[in-house]
Amino acid sequence: MKYAYFPGCSIHTTAQEYGISCNAVSRVLGIELIEIPEWNCCGAMDAVYAYNPLLSISLSARNLALAESMKMDVVTLCSACFFTLSRANKLLHEDSELKGKVDKLLNDAGLQYTGEVKIRHYLDVLLNDVGLENISKNVKVKLDGLKVAPYYGCMLIRPPNIVNFDDPEHPHSLDKIIEAIGGKNVDYIYKTRCCGASLGFTEGEVMMEMTSDLLLEAKNVEADCIAVPCPLCHFNMDAKQRSIESTFDVKIDMPIVFFTQLMGVAFGINPKELALNKNCVSTDKLFKRFHA
Amino acid sequence: MKRNHVHVITSQMMDKSFLADVMKMRGGKNVLDCIQCGICAGSCPAAWAMDFTPMQIVRMIHLGMKDTVLSSSTIWICASCYTCTTRCPRGIDIPLLMSALKTTAIREKIPARIEIKPKFHKSFADIVQKYGRIHEPELFLKITNKTDVRALMQNAALGWTLLRKGKLKLKAPKVNQKVQWSSLFANVAKEESK
């Protein structure tokens, strides 16, 4: 199983534990991720798009052109990159005037994109190419009794006319992976509720209000941790958790892990290779009993 | 009982060409399909922080209330979570419409209620054009509100944690220039200024 891998900016910076644990898990499952050489920012959803739509779409298109020459499906870890690349792909298919403009820009830079690339999220690959059976087979330490709140967020599942491998209202892909490694999914009503995303940069208080709902509800249902598939959600819930605690004067102390880290622990991979020490809210207590 | 005059609409508020302009925007083509059912307003997880709900914004577009729409906080607070569009029975791409309205507000230099918002988008785009990827410390320095002491303190603590964990790279990222990075984006700028 070989894929053109698009890490996205945060995998090299604030979400290193996601990329590192994904590599470790991929090795076990025989997934080969070949990084797209010289990839650039995906186009950053609304951050670049609102300032200059053509710039955002060209950023995506350059990545897609580079990936097309590799003749493999593109796989991303970041939900926002997944959405942004998929949206550009769709707009280029539907809007021939836009396609003409972007083609010319790419050609002048010695690139071309015919529109044949398929963009997929790593969760989709796990579920549909690797299969749950193969995942269960590799479990060495069943995560027995670990209560996990599966959090999907937004761009992984919405809107269904752009990203559509899971149900937008009642997604199940992450729940199934957690079950397959022996964890217990808690009933978590905010699994598809927005964390506030990039509002963290500009409307700190609004983001903190939104993210605090997610954290407090996970605490209400007595989850041991929240499992996430997106670097931005992770940043708001994990890195900003201390700020949220001090702003609202509450104690939360909820570990936020990438689902790949959970899988890695279940596969018996050494904590260093899963970068468990990089999460801001400590994961020590959470995983102590599962480490050999 | 007294009537609340805050939301009284007058003919001076209406700009006849605005609806047509919006319908030419990406995301705005089918705004007239809106039946004002309100599922977007009810679903929006950030509506409580907005001055108008997405449903009201669409209705104000119908009425040509350009200034009210473009100076609303709504267009800047939408987090593009797509809950609204997923549920919209008329298939209106509200987040894409909000983005297009933001682009218009930025280009027409309409002040946002929160000054930092247009700056965030411009800084993000500038940094990405410069390096090919985002460089968080630089973005952060450009958009931090230096007068909000509490936010500064929280961010300083956060910055320290991230540095300690090796998650904040002070050195800027670099995409190899051999792939004609700069020419591609110089041409984007030329194309946009046409």
Any overview of this molecule?
The complex is a heterodimer of chains A (292) and B (194). Chain A is an alpha/beta fold and 292 residues long. Chain A has 2 domains: 2-121, Up-down Bundle (Glutathione S-transferase Yfyf (Class Pi), Chain A, domain 2), CATH 1.20.1050; 140-290, Rossmann fold, CATH 3.40.50. Helix content of chain A is 47%, strand content 10%. In chain A, helix 1 packs across helix 13. Chain A is globular, with a radius of gyration of 19 Å. Chain B is an all-alpha fold and 194 residues long. Chain B has 2 domains: 11-107, Fumarate Reductase Iron-sulfur Protein, Chain B, domain 2; 116-193, no CATH class. Chain B is globular. Chains A and B meet through helix 2, helix 3, helix 5, helix 9 and helix 10 of A and helix 6, helix 7, helix 8, helix 9 and helix 10 of B.
Structural class of the secondary structure composition of chain A? alpha/beta
Morphology of chain A = globular
Approximate strand percentage of chain B: under 5%
Averaged pLDDT of chain B, please?
89
Order of helices and strands of chain B: HHHHHHHHHHH
CATH topology of the largest domain in chain A: Rossmann fold
- Gyration radius of chain B (Cα, Å) is 20 Å
- The overall average pLDDT of chain A, rounded, is 96
In whole angstroms, the N-to-C terminal distance of chain A is 30 Å
| Count of the domains of chain A | 2
User: What's the CATH first level of the largest domain in chain B?
Assistant: Mainly Alpha
How is the main sheet of chain B built?
none
- What is the count of DSSP helices of chain B, taking H or I runs of 4+ residues? 11
Query: Cα-atom Rg of chain A, whole angstroms?
Result: 19 Å
Percent of residues in β-strands of chain A: 5-15%
The CATH topology name of the largest domain in chain B reads Fumarate Reductase Iron-sulfur Protein, Chain B, domain 2
Task: State the CATH architecture of the largest domain in chain B.
Answer: Orthogonal Bundle
Q: Give the assembly state of these chains.
A: heterodimer
Biggest interface between chains: A-B, 66 and 65 residues
Please work out how many helical segments of chain A DSSP would assign: 14
